[in-house]
């Protein structure tokens, strides 16, 4: 797959505008409720009528496109904004397994930068929706932050690509009896509360070996570049619980400036000679822009 092309400033602003359209519509519906139940009901009916109208038009367009130019349908499916609208109306040209596989391909560079990978074992259809069965491999398999990595990166990508997925199960690797299966309930909570992704294009300006602190959604995140890859972690040393401000890279090892503890940034922030782990913050290219999963619970 070719590397994504970064859009210009106007493209980034346009993407951000439409990405938040759903929030603005909900705000308007909530405001309509101040006029009473009847006013809210009329506003919701208006939204349904408009949605159905556009849905009917999209259906006719997709019928014509699939017959005349199948490759154009693939281009539509590759555009996040168009694909999201097609999903709303049940018109996406690709089945759930194809979309889930593509979503996993999108997060593999992030997992691979931490020495990990994910395998799609299968998708089971149920009454309430589809269940995706995954297996984490490499560093992601044994690292205690695997659940965070899965919840904030893999699960978010799968949810966006296939909203009909109701649960995700992580299956233990063969010959790994001590590996616990992460409860599906813990991983699917974000299906109801999607991850907030923040565009952080300035991360691309980091040079090889450079470490910098970034304020993202009110939280300080430590970001470093090692080779071609960018790694982000919460600004907290797990050994002495202090800030990592002033930390430097020695090869792939990030050294705490206070206690001297070292952490391998390439392998999920694993402690060098210890059991402590840094807490990773996923960084992915979304719509051609470097974006970070907004850290939760850190001020």
TrEMBL record:
Keyword Iron assigned: yes
Keyword set includes Iron-sulfur: yes
GO BP: iron-sulfur cluster assembly
Entry's Gene Ontology molecular function annotations: 2 iron, 2 sulfur cluster binding; iron ion binding; monooxygenase activity; oxidoreductase activity, acting on paired donors, with incorporation or reduction of molecular oxygen
Gene3D superfamilies: Fe-S cluster assembly (FSCA), Rieske [2Fe-2S] iron-sulphur domain
Highest taxon listed in the record's lineage: Bacteria
Domain Rieske: 197-292
PROSITE patterns listed in its UniProt record: RIESKE (PS51296)
Function: May be involved in the formation or repair of [Fe-S] clusters present in iron-sulfur proteins.
Family: Belongs to the NifU family.
Name this protein carries in UniProt: Rieske domain-containing protein
Organism field: Mycolicibacterium pulveris
């Amino acid at each position: 797959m070719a590397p994504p092309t970064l859009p210009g400033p106007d493209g980034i602003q346009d993407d951000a505008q439409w990405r938040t359209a759903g929030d603005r519509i909900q705000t308007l519906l909530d405001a309509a409720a101040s006029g009473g139940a009847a006013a809210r009901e009329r506003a919701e009916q208006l939204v349904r009528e408009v949605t159905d109208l556009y849905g009917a038009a999209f259906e006719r367009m997709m019928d014509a496109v699939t017959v005349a130019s199948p490759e154009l349908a693939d281009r539509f499916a590759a555009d996040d904004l168009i694909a999201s609208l097609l999903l709303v109306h049940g018109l996406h040209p690709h089945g759930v397994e194809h979309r889930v596989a593509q979503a996993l391909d999108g997060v593999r560079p992030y997992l691979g930068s931490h020495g990990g990978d994910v395998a799609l074992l299968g998708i089971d259809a149920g009454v309430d929706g589809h269940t995706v069965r995954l297996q984490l491999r490499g560093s992601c398999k044994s690292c205690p932050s695997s659940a965070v990595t899965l919840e904030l990166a893999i699960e978010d990508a799968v949810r966006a690509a296939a909203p009909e997925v109701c649960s995700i199960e992580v299956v233990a690797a063969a010959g790994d009896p001590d590996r616990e299966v992460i409860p599906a309930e813990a991983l699917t909570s974000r299906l109801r509360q999607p991850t907030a992704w923040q565009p952080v294009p300035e991360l691309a300006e980091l040079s090889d070996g450079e470490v910098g602190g970034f304020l993202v959604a009110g939280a300080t995140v430590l970001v470093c570049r090692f080779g071609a890859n960018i790694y982000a972690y919460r600004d907290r040393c797990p050994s002495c619980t202090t800030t990592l401000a002033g930390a430097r890279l020695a090869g792939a090892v990030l050294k705490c400036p206070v206690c001297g503890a070292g952490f391998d940034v390439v392998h999920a922030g694993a402690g060098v000679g210890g059991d402590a782990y840094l807490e990773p913050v996923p960084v992915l290219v979304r719509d051609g822009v470097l974006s970070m999963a907004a850290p939760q619970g850190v001020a």
